[in-house]
Amino acid sequence: ANKANVVTDFHRQTLEVRNMELTYYLMVFDKLSTISSLLAGFASSALMVGIPRKCNPYLVTLFLLSTGSALGAHLLVVVVTTMCTMWGPGYALKGEDAGYVDHAIYILDTTMSSMERFFFFGLICYFTSSILVVWLLFDPTGSLTVTVIFFLLLVWLYCKSLKIAGKLRISKKVDGRIKHHRVRNLGHLMGDATGTLQGDSVSANFATHI
């Protein structure tokens, strides 16, 4: 019984580590969803801007493409991250064993990587749209001034992002998943073929099954 308690406690602590990983991914999705919803609102407002008919049609087309891409990318991030936030914890909680927790975290990890790419793509499209709308609505002098300011901000943002990523990103990730000999059912581990832990079928030879 003491040995079974040790095994059970070990797996419980492992699941606590996995729960911390799950909480981390949910926090990231919440931040991405919040910022993307804000940027999607800005992009949808930009689509309602009245463009003079005398403007360059190529600039208008590029403006519509960049604005639409920004809106679509950020809406995609909002929808997918919201779905992951709603269904990910439920899948991990209601599964039959700890394997469901591992699979849920794996799905959230791969989804987070793709959503980060869509988020930065939408951010670039949003900045492009903001620059183009200035050229469509204002005189060349003011448009050039705003473009230079936006360009400097983009360079500063890019450098800061690279610096933060270099400091905080790790080359090799380590997770809390048990890769070998996971105990899926304590009853089977203790020697009970039915997994009920009833009667004299419980054996102390479970250590040979680990």
Topology:
Layout: H1 2-47, H2 57-94, H3 98-137, H4 140-168, H5 186-189
Helix pairs in contact: 1-2, 1-3, 2-3, 3-4
Succession of helices and strands: HHHHH
Beta-strand percentage?
under 5%
Mean pLDDT comes to 79
SSE-based structural type = mainly alpha
Shape: elongated
- First and last CA, distance: 15 Å
Low-pLDDT residue intervals, each spanning 5 or more residues:
200-210
List its salient traits.
membrane, about 210 residues, about 0% strand, disordered C terminus, H(+)-exporting diphosphatase, transmembrane, transmembrane helix, mainly alpha
Description:
The protein is built from five helices and no strands. It is mainly alpha-helical.
Q: Quick recap of the structure?
A:
The chain has 210 residues and is mainly α. It has helices at 2-47, 57-94, 98-137, 140-168, 186-189.
